[in-house]
Amino acid sequence: MCGITGYWNARGLHNQTPKLLEKMAQTLHHRGPDGYGFHFDKEAGLAMGHARLSIIDLCSGGQPLYSEDKKNVLTVNGEFYDYKRIRTHLRLQGAHFSSKSDSEIAMPLYDRYGLDFVEHLRGEFAIAFYDGRNDRLILVRDRFGVKPLFYHIRNDVVYWGSEIKALFAHPDVPREFSTHAVLHQLMHTMVPGTSAFKDVYALKPGHMLIISRRGDSLDVQEKQYWDMDFPEETERDKSIPADYHIGKVQEVLTDAVQQRLEADVPVGCYLSGGIDSCSMLGMAAAMQQSPVKAFTISFDNKDYDEAHIAREMAEKVNAEQEQISLSADELYGDNYVRTLWHAERTFYNTLGVAKWCMSKRVNECGYRVVVTGEGSDELFGGYPAFKRDMLAHGLDGEHDAAEVASYKKLMEETNRLFRGAILSEDTISHPAMESVCGFTPSWIQPWMQTLAIARPLLHDDVLDMLKGYDPIEAIAGSFNKAQLNGRHVLDKAQYTWSKTMLECQILNWGGDRVDMANSMESRPAFLDHHVAAAAVQIPPHYRIHGNKEKWVLREAMQQILPRVLYEREKFAFMAPPGHTDQKKQQALQLLLNEYMNEQAIRDAGLFDVKRLTAFMKAYLEDKDPVSLVRKDALINHLLGLHILWRQFVKREAPVAV
Fold first, then answer.
1. Of all residues in the chain, what percent carry a pLDDT higher than 90?
2. Per the record, GO CC terms (predicted)?
């Protein structure tokens, strides 16, 4: 696990390149504190940098890596699993290796399979690979986008980096917000492939960029190599019994967890009170010879705290548990600002700050790797919004109206705390979503309602630039309609969420960015593509079985989960919002006073001062819990944009990171 960066100039390099590349790599020190590696080729115009976090092959796994003839150069951020078997197979075919690093297998795989080499890679990764024999650069991102990779192309120069701040370390990369992205951050939903900043792009999950030199210019092609492919309803074999799917999930998850316990350093587990992380801990505890260390967040609000369930799970498997108790002091202030600097985009809830605090504690305990439960809801149908769509559009005739009504009532009551953020209080629709999905997925509806409040707050100049732009239409237009046609309602809900919120939220400020902020690698075993291949084959009525979300996963994990968790309905993992107690209100207000005072609003130029001031006044007077949850989310985005503007556009140094 590391950080990668670099640039390729079709016209060659100048003498300042070493200093510039070193500066770019140094911005990624938190991702790779164990040393830097650089490759310079002045004639070819190539500069590649690597910041290393040592996890596999602690002694000789430095990068960049080279082919035997030194023509090909490789840098990798991430992990390739099952690398020992692959390396042995390649060695039997005549390949030679200079290290025991998992990353090195990519080189001979490319020699044998060309661009299809990525089909043979398993894991979470971002790759920069220079093919000197064909004079082309290949940037690759893993199938779900667990590992970040950004790029900017300007004047026949391509710049790339694990984080945007690495690109900004080069003086030729402009620092400016994308007007469209400002609007998308306010409504919490980004368009795939975009970032918060103008002309800085995120390489899409499951994609590669192939950049070839054509004289003094660069030819850029984007290629998709993987997608989350649900079968069409007419092609699904409905005769396969539930027991088969339950057994298959046990098989593929056992393998995925085992692969992710492979490391030359100790591996721990994140543990919340949910089925996902408890399943990971239960399986890891069965596999490991020594007790597993589990790390749990505890909030100072019993409505949001799940630590008691996590404790029961830890005791069940004799895991050593480290509990991190978080209050306003930890969730706001400098920690809030630091988290934004690492995430490089806004967040709707201080859960991202909580995750930053937890990774910091993991590092302090001497751990560099944890197995996590991210991705389970996406694959097995866990989110309340998915269930709402299933109950509204997707149940078969086996359930009568009264039964469905009782399911809906129970779900709404269980998730009442989250109405206004992750669930809308009203059903709303959009023609663009109706066109591609046949309905408007419930997961985007609360953010459509937030958009209606947020857009009028923008400065008139910004509104003029956004005239005619429909962010919902842009999101809907990004989906591959061929992957939606003929699919079940639940398939469509899971697919559209996974293409947007998984990458820009769950795996960003809920995953890699806040974990690697503290030099700590998280490994989401559910997002193994072999697990995904099994999950998409599970019929919708087994994923959500009556009122039971993730039913197949529950049954597969039944024997290792506490009974209370096996029977419990999905409960969203979320930090207590700012309005829930006076200390949080005061801590939030201190940040608002510093970053969103009247002069700060005018300096950033994103919002109309009068309209924004009126909104903040209405927030302080609001007593409606649903409205407050929505406004809390929006205020986090508003505050986040002003902090990001100061950090990256104004270039004011952040707090010590």
1. 82
2. cytosol
